[in-house]
């Protein structure tokens, strides 16, 4: 969330010059987010981070004296609906910047915003923007890029050739596990996978029972009655 806040702020700064010469009275930021469906857990945190940035700028007289507005659209993790929402946003809201999350949603809505020369901040899980479209200001590193970087540098930075992943299964974590699996095979790193249900007690139990180096310290902390988590 902190990373996204910094990125959004950098985007608003980047349109400072544009705002100074624009005849518009405000800067409109639109967001297509998922509040239900496969990626439903991401909607509220993304919305809160965007709102925090917008409120902060407006408290300081906006950008170049222009108020910053935010309008959020719920695509329900549905790529087809996201394309319709993009059309609606362009017609009714006329955004200067849009924030898009979830790969399939992004792929559906992106062409419309690119065609209409709208600046885009894209949080997508796959390698879908390696060709660097003209109006995509920022695309996050893909899962596969991050997995490759981690496994390639594991031995160099930590002197290790193995690691353990404890995760809760959903659409996004499946993609992470797939990326780590491919990268581990490529760089000959041993990877142990532990799937959990997601509740805190199950997570703690998984750590205690896993054969990883900090498990002993974790057991000692719990034995002493502390709430410290590693």
Question: How does this model look, in words?
Answer:
With 230 residues, the chain is α/β, with parallel strands linked by helices. 50% of the residues lie in helices and 19% in strands. It has 9 helices and 7 strands. The chain has helices spanning 2-14, 16-21, 43-59, 79-92, 103-115, 143-158, 171-186, 200-209, 215-223, and strands at 26-33, 67-74, 97-101, 119-123, 136-139, 162-168, 190-196. The strands form 2 sheets. A 5-stranded parallel β-sheet has the order 2-1-3-4-5, with helices on both faces. The radius of gyration is 21 Å and the shape is elongated.
Query: Which parts are unreliable, with pLDDT below 50 for 5 consecutive residues or more?
Result: 215-219, 226-230
What structural class do you assign from the helix and strand content? alpha/beta
Sheet-strand content, in percent, reads 15-25%
Give the beta-strand count. 7
Principal-axes shape call:
elongated
Q: Secondary-structure element sequence?
A: HHEHEHEHEEHEHEHH
Mean pLDDT: 79
Strand order of the largest sheet: 2-1-3-4-5
Question: Number of helix segments?
Answer: 9
Radius of gyration: 21 Å
Helix content: 40-55%
Distance between the termini: 20 Å
Could you give a short account of the major beta sheet? 5 strands, parallel
């Amino acid at each position: 969330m902190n990373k996204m806040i910094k990125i959004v702020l950098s985007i608003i700064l980047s349109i400072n010059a544009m705002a100074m010469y624009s005849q518009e009275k405000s800067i409109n930021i639109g967001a297509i987010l998922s509040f239900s469906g496969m990626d439903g857990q991401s909607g509220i945190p993304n919305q809160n981070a965007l709102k925090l940035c917008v409120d902060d700028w407006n408290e300081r007289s906006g950008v170049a004296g222009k108020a910053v507005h935010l309008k959020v659209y719920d695509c329900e993790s549905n790529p087809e609906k996201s394309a319709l929402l993009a059309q609606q946003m362009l017609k009714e809201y006329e955004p200067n910047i849009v924030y898009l999350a979830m790969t399939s949603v992004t792929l559906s809505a992106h062409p419309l915003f690119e065609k209409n020369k709208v600046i885009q901040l894209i949080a997508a899980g796959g390698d879908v923007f390696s060709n660097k479209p003209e109006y995509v200001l920022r695309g996050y590193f893909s899962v596969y890029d991050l997995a490759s970087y981690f496994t390639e540098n594991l031995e160099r930075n930590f002197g290790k050739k193995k690691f353990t992943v404890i995760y809760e299964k959903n659409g996004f974590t499946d993609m992470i596990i797939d990326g780590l699996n491919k990268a581990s095979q490529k760089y000959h790193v041993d990877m142990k996978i532990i799937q959990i249900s997601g509740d805190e007690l199950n997570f703690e139990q998984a750590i205690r029972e896993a054969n990883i180096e900090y498990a002993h310290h974790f057991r000692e902390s719990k034995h002493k009655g502390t709430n410290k988590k590693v």
